[in-house]
Amino acid sequence: MSTNTFWRSMSIVAVSALLAAPAYGRAEPVADSHPSGADRFYRQTLEWKPCGVENLDKAGGECANVLVPLDYGRPDGRTITLAISRVKASDPARRRGILVSNPGGPGGPGLDSVDLLGDVLSPDVLASYDLIGMDPRGVGESTSSPRCGWPVGEMVRSAGLDPLGFVHDTVQSAGMAASCVVRDPELVRQFTTRNTARDMDVVRAALGEEKINFYGLSYGTYLGAVFTQMFPERSDRVVLDSAIDPDRYWTGLVQDWGPADEIALDDWAVWAAAHDEEFRLGATPQQVRAKIEELVRIVHRQPIVIDGFAIDDHWLPFILHALLWNFRLNEPLAATVRELADAAGGPPTTSQTPRLRAIVAALRDNENSVLAEVACGDVSAPIDPLWYWRNIEESRATQPVFGALAGNIQPCAFWPRPVEPATVVRNAVPALIVQATGDPRTPYAHGVRLHQYLSQSRMVTLQDVRIHMTFRPELSSCVNNAINTYFGAGTLQDADTTCTADQTAS
Protein backbone atom coordinates (compact mmCIF):
# COMPACT_ATOMS: atom_id res chain seq x y z
CA MET A 1 0.00 0.00 0.00
CA SER A 2 1.40 3.43 -0.94
CA THR A 3 1.68 6.16 1.67
CA ASN A 4 -0.91 8.33 -0.09
CA THR A 5 -3.39 5.44 -0.33
CA PHE A 6 -2.82 4.59 3.31
CA TRP A 7 -3.60 8.07 4.62
CA ARG A 8 -6.48 8.51 2.21
CA SER A 9 -8.09 5.37 3.61
CA MET A 10 -7.54 6.59 7.15
CA SER A 11 -9.20 9.92 6.41
CA ILE A 12 -12.21 8.17 4.91
CA VAL A 13 -12.59 5.96 7.99
CA ALA A 14 -12.37 8.93 10.38
CA VAL A 15 -14.80 11.12 8.47
CA SER A 16 -17.28 8.29 7.91
CA ALA A 17 -17.28 7.35 11.59
CA LEU A 18 -17.86 10.94 12.72
CA LEU A 19 -20.70 11.43 10.22
CA ALA A 20 -22.33 8.24 11.52
CA ALA A 21 -22.01 9.20 15.20
CA PRO A 22 -25.15 10.23 17.08
CA ALA A 23 -25.72 13.89 17.86
CA TYR A 24 -23.52 15.12 20.68
CA GLY A 25 -26.33 16.49 22.83
CA ARG A 26 -25.60 18.93 25.61
CA ALA A 27 -22.00 19.67 26.49
CA GLU A 28 -22.48 21.68 29.67
CA PRO A 29 -21.98 20.12 33.11
CA VAL A 30 -25.03 19.25 35.13
CA ALA A 31 -25.21 20.96 38.53
CA ASP A 32 -23.25 18.98 41.10
CA SER A 33 -25.81 19.55 43.84
CA HIS A 34 -29.22 17.91 43.85
CA PRO A 35 -30.85 18.75 40.52
CA SER A 36 -34.36 20.09 40.62
CA GLY A 37 -36.91 17.29 40.72
CA ALA A 38 -34.45 14.65 41.98
CA ASP A 39 -35.37 14.64 45.68
CA ARG A 40 -37.04 11.24 45.43
CA PHE A 41 -33.71 9.58 44.63
CA TYR A 42 -31.98 11.05 47.67
CA ARG A 43 -34.82 10.12 50.04
CA GLN A 44 -35.49 6.55 48.93
CA THR A 45 -35.72 3.64 51.35
CA LEU A 46 -33.55 0.65 50.52
CA GLU A 47 -34.63 -2.98 50.71
CA TRP A 48 -31.78 -5.18 51.89
CA LYS A 49 -31.43 -8.85 50.98
CA PRO A 50 -28.72 -11.56 50.90
CA CYS A 51 -26.09 -10.86 48.25
CA GLY A 52 -25.47 -14.37 46.94
CA VAL A 53 -21.74 -13.53 46.86
CA GLU A 54 -19.61 -15.92 48.91
CA ASN A 55 -17.28 -13.40 50.53
CA LEU A 56 -20.07 -10.98 51.34
CA ASP A 57 -22.44 -13.62 52.66
CA LYS A 58 -19.71 -15.09 54.86
CA ALA A 59 -18.99 -11.61 56.26
CA GLY A 60 -22.66 -10.99 57.01
CA GLY A 61 -23.10 -8.66 54.09
CA GLU A 62 -26.38 -7.58 52.53
CA CYS A 63 -27.25 -6.05 49.19
CA ALA A 64 -29.76 -3.56 47.81
CA ASN A 65 -30.65 -1.77 44.60
CA VAL A 66 -30.53 2.03 44.49
CA LEU A 67 -32.65 3.93 41.96
CA VAL A 68 -30.90 6.81 40.16
CA PRO A 69 -31.71 8.93 37.11
CA LEU A 70 -30.00 7.87 33.91
CA ASP A 71 -29.39 11.54 33.09
CA TYR A 72 -29.11 13.87 36.06
CA GLY A 73 -29.97 16.74 33.76
CA ARG A 74 -33.35 15.07 33.22
CA PRO A 75 -34.25 13.54 36.60
CA ASP A 76 -37.87 12.99 35.57
CA GLY A 77 -36.78 10.79 32.68
CA ARG A 78 -35.38 7.30 32.40
CA THR A 79 -34.04 5.59 35.54
CA ILE A 80 -31.48 2.85 36.20
CA THR A 81 -30.48 0.83 39.26
CA LEU A 82 -27.20 0.45 41.11
CA ALA A 83 -26.25 -2.71 42.98
CA ILE A 84 -24.64 -1.93 46.34
CA SER A 85 -23.50 -4.04 49.27
CA ARG A 86 -23.05 -3.33 52.95
CA VAL A 87 -20.99 -5.07 55.61
CA LYS A 88 -21.81 -3.34 58.87
CA ALA A 89 -19.19 -2.06 61.27
CA SER A 90 -18.14 -4.84 63.61
CA ASP A 91 -18.60 -2.62 66.69
CA PRO A 92 -21.79 -0.49 66.46
CA ALA A 93 -20.71 1.53 69.49
CA ARG A 94 -17.61 2.74 67.61
CA ARG A 95 -19.21 3.21 64.20
CA ARG A 96 -18.39 6.56 62.57
CA GLY A 97 -19.75 6.18 59.03
CA ILE A 98 -19.47 4.44 55.68
CA LEU A 99 -16.37 3.47 53.69
CA VAL A 100 -17.13 3.30 49.98
CA SER A 101 -14.60 1.62 47.68
CA ASN A 102 -13.90 1.28 43.98
CA PRO A 103 -11.47 -1.37 42.63
CA GLY A 104 -10.57 0.32 39.35
CA GLY A 105 -11.26 -0.20 35.68
CA PRO A 106 -13.02 1.69 34.28
CA GLY A 107 -15.57 -1.08 34.36
CA GLY A 108 -14.38 -3.02 37.38
CA PRO A 109 -17.19 -4.56 39.46
CA GLY A 110 -17.03 -3.22 43.00
CA LEU A 111 -19.87 -4.97 44.80
CA ASP A 112 -17.53 -7.25 46.80
CA SER A 113 -15.84 -4.75 49.09
CA VAL A 114 -14.66 -7.59 51.34
CA ASP A 115 -12.63 -9.08 48.50
CA LEU A 116 -10.95 -5.72 47.91
CA LEU A 117 -10.32 -4.58 51.47
CA GLY A 118 -11.24 -7.33 53.92
CA ASP A 119 -7.71 -8.66 54.31
CA VAL A 120 -5.91 -5.33 54.73
CA LEU A 121 -8.16 -3.09 56.81
CA SER A 122 -7.26 -3.20 60.50
CA PRO A 123 -9.72 -4.49 63.12
CA ASP A 124 -10.06 -0.91 64.36
CA VAL A 125 -11.15 0.32 60.93
CA LEU A 126 -13.50 -2.62 60.40
CA ALA A 127 -15.07 -1.81 63.75
CA SER A 128 -15.64 1.81 62.73
CA TYR A 129 -17.11 1.66 59.24
CA ASP A 130 -19.83 0.01 57.22
CA LEU A 131 -18.03 -1.24 54.11
CA ILE A 132 -20.01 -0.19 51.04
CA GLY A 133 -19.36 -1.86 47.72
CA MET A 134 -20.93 -0.70 44.47
CA ASP A 135 -21.08 -1.90 40.90
CA PRO A 136 -20.91 1.43 39.06
CA ARG A 137 -23.53 2.18 36.43
CA GLY A 138 -22.91 0.01 33.39
CA VAL A 139 -21.09 -2.65 35.42
CA GLY A 140 -21.96 -6.02 36.89
CA GLU A 141 -25.30 -6.21 38.69
CA SER A 142 -26.08 -2.55 38.05
CA THR A 143 -27.95 -1.51 34.90
CA SER A 144 -25.69 -2.16 31.93
CA SER A 145 -25.94 -2.04 28.16
CA PRO A 146 -26.30 -5.00 25.80
CA ARG A 147 -23.07 -6.60 24.67
CA CYS A 148 -21.60 -4.80 21.70
CA GLY A 149 -20.62 -7.94 19.81
CA TRP A 150 -16.93 -7.07 19.58
CA PRO A 151 -14.69 -9.42 17.56
CA VAL A 152 -12.09 -9.27 20.37
CA GLY A 153 -12.39 -8.83 24.11
CA GLU A 154 -10.28 -5.70 24.60
CA MET A 155 -10.00 -2.33 22.90
CA VAL A 156 -6.38 -1.76 24.00
CA ARG A 157 -3.86 -3.58 21.79
CA SER A 158 -0.72 -2.87 19.84
CA ALA A 159 -0.85 -1.50 16.31
CA GLY A 160 1.77 -4.05 15.32
CA LEU A 161 4.89 -3.57 13.28
CA ASP A 162 3.61 -2.15 10.00
CA PRO A 163 1.01 0.30 8.60
CA LEU A 164 -1.34 -2.48 7.52
CA GLY A 165 -1.77 -3.54 11.12
CA PHE A 166 -2.63 0.02 12.07
CA VAL A 167 -5.15 0.23 9.21
CA HIS A 168 -6.76 -2.96 10.50
CA ASP A 169 -7.02 -1.62 14.04
CA THR A 170 -8.37 1.72 12.85
CA VAL A 171 -11.16 0.16 10.82
CA GLN A 172 -11.94 -2.33 13.58
CA SER A 173 -11.95 0.39 16.27
CA ALA A 174 -14.48 2.40 14.26
CA GLY A 175 -16.70 -0.67 14.02
CA MET A 176 -16.33 -1.43 17.72
CA ALA A 177 -17.41 2.09 18.64
CA ALA A 178 -20.40 2.03 16.33
CA SER A 179 -21.55 -1.39 17.53
CA CYS A 180 -21.66 -0.11 21.13
CA VAL A 181 -23.28 3.26 20.62
CA VAL A 182 -25.93 2.21 18.12
CA ARG A 183 -27.62 -0.28 20.46
CA ASP A 184 -28.84 2.22 23.05
CA PRO A 185 -27.06 5.58 22.69
CA GLU A 186 -29.17 7.28 25.37
CA LEU A 187 -28.06 4.65 27.90
CA VAL A 188 -24.43 4.16 26.88
CA ARG A 189 -23.54 7.84 26.72
CA GLN A 190 -24.54 8.35 30.37
CA PHE A 191 -22.06 5.77 31.71
CA THR A 192 -19.63 8.44 32.83
CA THR A 193 -17.45 9.05 35.85
CA ARG A 194 -19.23 12.31 36.68
CA ASN A 195 -22.52 10.43 36.78
CA THR A 196 -20.97 7.69 38.93
CA ALA A 197 -19.82 10.38 41.37
CA ARG A 198 -23.40 11.68 41.46
CA ASP A 199 -24.57 8.11 42.02
CA MET A 200 -22.24 7.87 45.02
CA ASP A 201 -23.87 10.95 46.48
CA VAL A 202 -27.32 9.40 46.04
CA VAL A 203 -26.07 6.23 47.77
CA ARG A 204 -24.72 8.37 50.60
CA ALA A 205 -28.07 10.09 51.06
CA ALA A 206 -30.05 6.85 50.80
CA LEU A 207 -27.88 5.43 53.59
CA GLY A 208 -28.58 8.47 55.75
CA GLU A 209 -24.96 9.65 55.86
CA GLU A 210 -23.57 13.17 55.76
CA LYS A 211 -20.23 12.26 54.20
CA ILE A 212 -18.40 9.53 52.33
CA ASN A 213 -15.11 7.95 53.35
CA PHE A 214 -13.51 6.48 50.26
CA TYR A 215 -10.83 4.06 49.08
CA GLY A 216 -10.11 4.10 45.36
CA LEU A 217 -7.64 2.02 43.40
CA SER A 218 -6.32 2.97 39.94
CA TYR A 219 -9.34 4.27 38.00
CA GLY A 220 -10.99 4.46 41.41
CA THR A 221 -8.58 7.30 42.21
CA TYR A 222 -9.91 9.23 39.24
CA LEU A 223 -13.46 8.61 40.44
CA GLY A 224 -12.48 9.64 43.95
CA ALA A 225 -10.74 12.80 42.75
CA VAL A 226 -13.77 13.74 40.63
CA PHE A 227 -16.03 13.19 43.64
CA THR A 228 -13.92 15.50 45.80
CA GLN A 229 -14.19 18.19 43.13
CA MET A 230 -17.93 17.80 42.63
CA PHE A 231 -18.86 17.20 46.27
CA PRO A 232 -16.10 18.60 48.49
CA GLU A 233 -18.48 19.09 51.40
CA ARG A 234 -19.46 15.39 51.19
CA SER A 235 -15.87 14.09 51.18
CA ASP A 236 -14.45 12.79 54.45
CA ARG A 237 -11.37 10.52 54.70
CA VAL A 238 -10.18 9.77 51.17
CA VAL A 239 -7.40 7.32 50.22
CA LEU A 240 -6.26 7.17 46.59
CA ASP A 241 -4.04 4.16 45.82
CA SER A 242 -2.03 4.07 42.57
CA ALA A 243 -3.38 7.38 41.37
CA ILE A 244 -4.17 8.77 37.94
CA ASP A 245 -3.30 12.30 36.92
CA PRO A 246 -6.81 13.52 36.02
CA ASP A 247 -5.40 15.76 33.29
CA ARG A 248 -3.89 12.67 31.56
CA TYR A 249 -6.98 10.44 31.71
CA TRP A 250 -7.73 8.50 29.33
CA THR A 251 -5.58 8.84 26.20
CA GLY A 252 -2.65 10.40 28.03
CA LEU A 253 -2.63 7.66 30.65
CA VAL A 254 -2.44 4.96 27.98
CA GLN A 255 0.38 6.85 26.25
CA ASP A 256 2.25 6.88 29.55
CA TRP A 257 2.04 3.09 29.71
CA GLY A 258 4.61 2.89 26.91
CA PRO A 259 7.75 4.11 28.68
CA ALA A 260 6.54 2.68 32.02
CA ASP A 261 6.06 -0.79 30.54
CA GLU A 262 9.49 -0.65 28.89
CA ILE A 263 11.05 0.12 32.27
CA ALA A 264 9.01 -2.69 33.83
CA LEU A 265 10.16 -5.07 31.10
CA ASP A 266 13.78 -4.23 31.85
CA ASP A 267 13.16 -4.81 35.54
CA TRP A 268 11.59 -8.19 34.85
CA ALA A 269 14.43 -9.06 32.44
CA VAL A 270 16.90 -8.76 35.32
CA TRP A 271 14.86 -11.32 37.25
CA ALA A 272 14.44 -13.61 34.23
CA ALA A 273 18.18 -13.57 33.52
CA ALA A 274 18.85 -14.62 37.12
CA HIS A 275 16.48 -17.57 36.51
CA ASP A 276 17.83 -18.54 33.09
CA GLU A 277 18.52 -22.10 34.17
CA GLU A 278 14.79 -22.64 34.67
CA PHE A 279 13.21 -20.56 31.89
CA ARG A 280 16.00 -20.34 29.26
CA LEU A 281 15.13 -16.81 28.14
CA GLY A 282 18.64 -15.38 28.29
CA ALA A 283 21.60 -15.27 30.65
CA THR A 284 21.68 -11.48 30.74
CA PRO A 285 18.91 -8.86 30.87
CA GLN A 286 19.94 -7.72 27.40
CA GLN A 287 19.49 -11.24 26.04
CA VAL A 288 16.07 -11.52 27.68
CA ARG A 289 14.91 -8.26 26.13
CA ALA A 290 16.28 -9.30 22.75
CA LYS A 291 14.29 -12.54 23.10
CA ILE A 292 11.09 -10.58 23.67
CA GLU A 293 11.67 -8.22 20.76
CA GLU A 294 12.48 -11.14 18.47
CA LEU A 295 9.33 -12.94 19.58
CA VAL A 296 7.26 -9.90 18.58
CA ARG A 297 8.81 -10.07 15.11
CA ILE A 298 8.18 -13.81 14.91
CA VAL A 299 4.47 -13.55 15.73
CA HIS A 300 4.18 -10.71 13.22
CA ARG A 301 5.23 -13.14 10.51
CA GLN A 302 3.27 -16.13 11.88
CA PRO A 303 0.83 -15.78 14.79
CA ILE A 304 0.88 -18.36 17.56
CA VAL A 305 -2.56 -19.97 17.84
CA ILE A 306 -3.25 -20.98 21.43
CA ASP A 307 -6.66 -22.09 22.68
CA GLY A 308 -8.14 -21.01 19.37
CA PHE A 309 -6.83 -17.43 19.60
CA ALA A 310 -4.15 -16.00 17.31
CA ILE A 311 -1.44 -14.21 19.28
CA ASP A 312 0.29 -11.84 16.88
CA ASP A 313 2.20 -8.57 17.13
CA HIS A 314 -1.03 -6.85 18.20
CA TRP A 315 -1.69 -9.14 21.17
CA LEU A 316 1.73 -10.26 22.41
CA PRO A 317 2.56 -6.78 23.79
CA PHE A 318 -0.87 -6.70 25.46
CA ILE A 319 -0.19 -10.05 27.16
CA LEU A 320 3.14 -8.75 28.45
CA HIS A 321 1.46 -5.55 29.63
CA ALA A 322 -1.15 -7.60 31.46
CA LEU A 323 1.53 -9.42 33.49
CA LEU A 324 4.15 -6.74 34.13
CA TRP A 325 2.12 -4.75 36.65
CA ASN A 326 3.22 -6.81 39.66
CA PHE A 327 6.67 -8.13 40.54
CA ARG A 328 4.94 -11.09 42.18
CA LEU A 329 3.99 -12.23 38.66
CA ASN A 330 7.62 -12.55 37.53
CA GLU A 331 7.48 -16.33 37.46
CA PRO A 332 4.08 -16.62 35.68
CA LEU A 333 5.29 -14.10 33.10
CA ALA A 334 8.47 -16.08 32.50
CA ALA A 335 6.47 -19.29 32.14
CA THR A 336 4.14 -17.56 29.69
CA VAL A 337 6.99 -16.27 27.54
CA ARG A 338 8.66 -19.68 27.60
CA GLU A 339 5.47 -21.36 26.43
CA LEU A 340 4.97 -18.82 23.64
CA ALA A 341 8.56 -19.15 22.49
CA ASP A 342 8.23 -22.94 22.39
CA ALA A 343 4.99 -22.71 20.43
CA ALA A 344 6.30 -20.23 17.85
CA GLY A 345 6.26 -21.59 14.32
CA GLY A 346 4.27 -24.66 15.35
CA PRO A 347 0.68 -25.81 14.90
CA PRO A 348 -2.25 -24.59 17.02
CA THR A 349 -1.90 -25.72 20.59
CA THR A 350 -3.49 -25.62 24.03
CA SER A 351 -2.10 -23.42 26.77
CA GLN A 352 -0.40 -25.12 29.69
CA THR A 353 0.16 -21.89 31.63
CA PRO A 354 -2.72 -20.72 33.86
CA ARG A 355 -2.09 -17.01 33.41
CA LEU A 356 -1.83 -17.26 29.64
CA ARG A 357 -4.92 -19.44 29.54
CA ALA A 358 -6.90 -16.86 31.48
CA ILE A 359 -5.75 -13.92 29.33
CA VAL A 360 -6.50 -15.75 26.10
CA ALA A 361 -9.93 -16.79 27.37
CA ALA A 362 -10.73 -13.17 28.20
CA LEU A 363 -9.55 -11.91 24.80
CA ARG A 364 -11.53 -14.62 23.04
CA ASP A 365 -14.71 -14.75 25.09
CA ASN A 366 -15.11 -11.84 27.54
CA GLU A 367 -16.02 -8.51 26.00
CA ASN A 368 -14.74 -5.58 28.05
CA SER A 369 -16.79 -2.97 26.21
CA VAL A 370 -17.78 -1.19 29.43
CA LEU A 371 -14.21 0.13 29.50
CA ALA A 372 -14.94 1.99 26.27
CA GLU A 373 -18.35 3.11 27.42
CA VAL A 374 -16.88 4.85 30.46
CA ALA A 375 -13.47 6.02 29.22
CA CYS A 376 -14.70 7.20 25.83
CA GLY A 377 -17.76 8.77 27.40
CA ASP A 378 -15.64 10.69 29.90
CA VAL A 379 -13.05 12.46 27.77
CA SER A 380 -12.76 13.25 24.08
CA ALA A 381 -9.97 11.48 22.17
CA PRO A 382 -8.14 12.77 19.09
CA ILE A 383 -10.03 11.78 15.93
CA ASP A 384 -7.25 11.99 13.33
CA PRO A 385 -5.61 8.59 12.65
CA LEU A 386 -2.49 10.39 11.48
CA TRP A 387 -2.01 11.75 15.00
CA TYR A 388 -1.84 8.20 16.40
CA TRP A 389 0.37 6.86 13.63
CA ARG A 390 2.92 9.65 14.06
CA ASN A 391 3.07 8.99 17.80
CA ILE A 392 3.59 5.28 17.17
CA GLU A 393 6.39 5.82 14.68
CA GLU A 394 8.11 8.36 16.92
CA SER A 395 8.02 5.97 19.87
CA ARG A 396 9.45 2.85 18.22
CA ALA A 397 13.11 3.66 18.83
CA THR A 398 12.73 4.10 22.59
CA GLN A 399 9.65 1.88 23.10
CA PRO A 400 10.21 -1.06 20.74
CA VAL A 401 7.75 -3.39 22.49
CA PHE A 402 5.08 -1.09 23.91
CA GLY A 403 5.13 2.12 21.87
CA ALA A 404 2.68 0.76 19.31
CA LEU A 405 0.36 -0.33 22.13
CA ALA A 406 0.48 2.92 24.08
CA GLY A 407 0.02 5.03 20.97
CA ASN A 408 -2.53 2.91 19.12
CA ILE A 409 -5.94 4.17 18.06
CA GLN A 410 -8.95 2.98 20.07
CA PRO A 411 -12.75 3.13 19.72
CA CYS A 412 -12.65 6.42 21.64
CA ALA A 413 -11.44 8.11 18.45
CA PHE A 414 -14.82 7.28 16.87
CA TRP A 415 -17.04 7.76 19.91
CA PRO A 416 -19.59 10.58 20.14
CA ARG A 417 -18.23 13.55 22.04
CA PRO A 418 -18.94 13.39 25.81
CA VAL A 419 -22.29 14.67 27.05
CA GLU A 420 -20.50 17.13 29.36
CA PRO A 421 -16.94 18.39 29.84
CA ALA A 422 -14.49 16.39 31.91
CA THR A 423 -13.88 17.46 35.50
CA VAL A 424 -10.90 19.67 36.23
CA VAL A 425 -9.62 18.57 39.63
CA ARG A 426 -8.17 21.39 41.71
CA ASN A 427 -9.28 21.54 45.34
CA ALA A 428 -8.24 21.52 48.99
CA VAL A 429 -10.03 18.37 50.15
CA PRO A 430 -7.66 16.39 52.43
CA ALA A 431 -6.62 13.03 50.98
CA LEU A 432 -3.93 10.39 51.32
CA ILE A 433 -2.27 9.44 48.02
CA VAL A 434 -0.19 6.27 47.92
CA GLN A 435 2.00 5.49 44.91
CA ALA A 436 4.76 3.01 44.02
CA THR A 437 7.73 4.42 42.13
CA GLY A 438 7.76 1.37 39.85
CA ASP A 439 4.04 1.30 39.02
CA PRO A 440 3.68 0.59 35.26
CA ARG A 441 -0.11 1.16 35.11
CA THR A 442 -0.35 4.52 36.84
CA PRO A 443 3.21 5.80 36.69
CA TYR A 444 4.63 7.56 39.72
CA ALA A 445 4.45 10.99 38.09
CA HIS A 446 0.66 10.66 38.01
CA GLY A 447 0.48 10.41 41.79
CA VAL A 448 2.83 13.37 42.18
CA ARG A 449 0.66 15.47 39.90
CA LEU A 450 -2.59 14.58 41.66
CA HIS A 451 -0.88 15.41 44.95
CA GLN A 452 -0.26 18.89 43.55
CA TYR A 453 -3.85 19.27 42.41
CA LEU A 454 -5.23 18.23 45.82
CA SER A 455 -3.43 20.95 47.74
CA GLN A 456 -4.19 19.57 51.23
CA SER A 457 -3.25 15.98 50.40
CA ARG A 458 -0.31 14.00 51.70
CA MET A 459 1.63 11.43 49.72
CA VAL A 460 3.14 8.11 50.73
CA THR A 461 5.73 6.79 48.26
CA LEU A 462 6.44 3.07 48.07
CA GLN A 463 10.05 3.11 46.96
CA ASP A 464 11.64 0.87 44.30
CA VAL A 465 8.77 -1.60 43.85
CA ARG A 466 7.14 -2.62 40.55
CA ILE A 467 3.57 -2.88 41.75
CA HIS A 468 0.15 -1.46 40.95
CA MET A 469 -1.98 -1.41 44.13
CA THR A 470 0.03 -0.82 47.25
CA PHE A 471 -2.55 -1.73 49.93
CA ARG A 472 -1.99 -5.49 50.01
CA PRO A 473 -1.08 -8.10 52.64
CA GLU A 474 2.60 -8.74 53.19
CA LEU A 475 3.75 -6.04 50.79
CA SER A 476 4.55 -3.01 52.94
CA SER A 477 3.50 -2.74 56.57
CA CYS A 478 4.56 0.91 56.36
CA VAL A 479 1.97 1.61 53.64
CA ASN A 480 -0.72 -0.45 55.35
CA ASN A 481 -0.17 1.33 58.66
CA ALA A 482 -0.37 4.73 56.99
CA ILE A 483 -3.71 3.91 55.35
CA ASN A 484 -5.23 2.24 58.39
CA THR A 485 -4.07 5.04 60.67
CA TYR A 486 -5.68 7.65 58.44
CA PHE A 487 -8.99 5.79 58.25
CA GLY A 488 -8.83 5.13 61.97
CA ALA A 489 -7.63 8.41 63.45
CA GLY A 490 -8.50 10.74 60.59
CA THR A 491 -5.33 12.80 60.74
CA LEU A 492 -2.85 13.14 57.91
CA GLN A 493 0.85 13.13 58.68
CA ASP A 494 2.61 16.50 58.73
CA ALA A 495 4.72 15.72 55.67
CA ASP A 496 4.98 13.29 52.78
CA THR A 497 6.66 10.01 53.65
CA THR A 498 8.51 7.18 51.95
CA CYS A 499 7.98 3.47 52.57
CA THR A 500 9.77 0.33 51.48
CA ALA A 501 8.46 -3.14 50.77
CA ASP A 502 8.66 -5.86 53.39
CA GLN A 503 9.65 -8.27 50.62
CA THR A 504 10.67 -7.97 46.98
CA ALA A 505 11.25 -10.31 44.07
CA SER A 506 13.95 -12.95 44.51
Task: Report on the architecture of this protein.
With 506 residues, the chain is α/β, with parallel strands linked by helices. It contains 20 helices and 11 strands. A 9-stranded mixed β-sheet has the order 1-2-4-3-5-6-9-10-11, sandwiched between helices. A two-stranded antiparallel ribbon has the order 7-8. Helix 1 (3-20) packs parallel to helix 6 (163-181), helix 8 crosses helix 9 and helix 10 crosses helix 12. The radius of gyration is 23 Å and the shape is globular.
Question: What structural class is derived from the secondary structure elements?
Answer: alpha/beta
Helix content: 40-55%
The percentage of residues in β strands lies in: 5-15%
Nearest-angstrom radius of gyration? Answer: 23 Å
Major sheet details = 9 strands, mixed
How would you summarize the topology of this molecule?
Layout lengths: L2 H18 L18 H4 L11 H5 L3 E8 L9 E9 L9 E6 L10 H5 L5 H6 E7 L27 H19 L3 H4 L4 H14 L5 E6 L1 H12 L4 E7 L9 H24 L1 H4 L5 H17 L2 E3 L2 E3 L4 H8 L6 H14 L10 H12 L3 H10 L6 H11 L7 H4 L25 E5 L7 H10 L4 E5 L14 H13 L7 E3 L7
Parallel strand pairs: 3-4, 3-5, 5-6, 6-9, 9-10, 10-11
Antiparallel strand pairs: 1-2, 2-4, 7-8
